[in-house]
Amino acid sequence: MRNFFSEFISNKSYFKNSITFFLFFAAWGIWWPFFQIWLSSKENGLGLPNTEIGIIYSINSVTALLFIFIYGIIQDKIGINRILLVICSIITSFTGPFFILFYEPFLNSHFYIVSIVGSVFLSSGFLAAMGLYEAVIEKFSRAFDFNYGKSRAWGSLGYAIASLISGSLYIISPSLTFGISSLFSMTLAIILIFYQPIKENKLPKQKIFTDTAIKFADLSHLFKSSKFLLFVLIIFFTCPLYLIFEQQLFPSYFLKFAPENYNGEKIYSIFTSLQVFIEVLVLMLAEKIISIIGIKKTLILSLIIMVLRIGLSILTDDFVIISVIKVIHAFEIPIFILSVFKYITMHFSTRLSATVYLIGYIMIVELGQIIFSTPIGIFQDYFSYKTTFILLFLIILSTTIGSTIALLNDKVNSPLK
């Protein structure tokens, strides 16, 4: 834990990038855990059915897909540069006004128009931007010699702290969560624009751009390679379905079993915060876990955790166990994200790392959500949560088994292991 904080003093690039993570995820975490609940709740939200919620998630994913592709190509061309992050932080500074003055008042009366406009805002500032923040800071971590996992942990810490207070704020008024999100984002924009660590100024700009510049031929070769296509298929049939389970289905499922004499939204926010605090601790240990069992095995382990969470949700109606299932999510996120980064860096050119991550992972996840969100929402409306969970369980389990063969083994004596 001491090293977690001490590097703030010794490495100012680590400091700026960690604060960037903290504020971005705080700005997102203050409202995002309750987005599905807000859309579906008749008492404290918009009261939309699962079919329309699925449509919103699909439209968001379509738009995010476009932004991810644009962000990925531009970022690999400009190299180690935060200009896109500055733009994203300025966009999210308008979260409060956007949701309070536009999205909430007009979504029910002009559903498709508002959903499309909303998807542009959400995708450019949050959904597509998350992968951009991660890819950019991963490049900075290699250029300025700091531990990416520790820096990313500050993002989880920001999300946890924001989630902890979001439940109480949501009960008072959902508008408060959107307004505070704007404050976090404005602070982030100011830091990104005006604070420049001396250490980062010492790296020659020529080296920054020359070493990372890519050509169309590089992308053409990448998209045709079998190792890239297999990686994409594994991501496509696991992550989008798991995120639909976690974001689109599980929040309402959780509230369904909450004790009647307690406020379900507040309980959910507490467990979300607990989950993310554990996530911070796991992120601090993730590098060690990967170094012990290897990148491929860690990636497969994270897929097994996905299967475990959905499987347990099928088997139980006990609220205590369902709460534990919520917290288990904390063990999947850190090791999955870090092992994906290390798998990409080990098996693909480092010059293309942002492209592979944003297009081969983030973009494919969004594409999967485009394809699956609405059908799964309709399926759940006609059947039940558990029947839907069984479908997701079987697909992800089959893909996890296939990944043991399809994923490349770790390179012997690789320093990235």
TrEMBL record:
InterPro entries: LacY/RafB_perm_fam (IPR000576), MFS_trans_sf (IPR036259). The chain crosses the membrane at residues 21-41, 53-74, 83-103, 109-133, 153-172, 178-198, 228-245, 267-286, 298-315, 321-344, 356-378, 390-408. The keyword Phosphoprotein does not apply. GO terms for cellular component: plasma membrane. It is a multi-pass membrane protein. It holds the Pfam family LacY_symp. It is found in: Cell inner membrane. It comes from the Bacteria. GO terms for molecular function: lactose binding; lactose:proton symporter activity. Its main location: membrane. This is Sucrose permease, major facilitator superfamily. It comes from Staphylococcus caeli. The lineage of its organism: Bacteria, Bacillati, Bacillota, Bacilli, Bacillales. The gene is lacY.
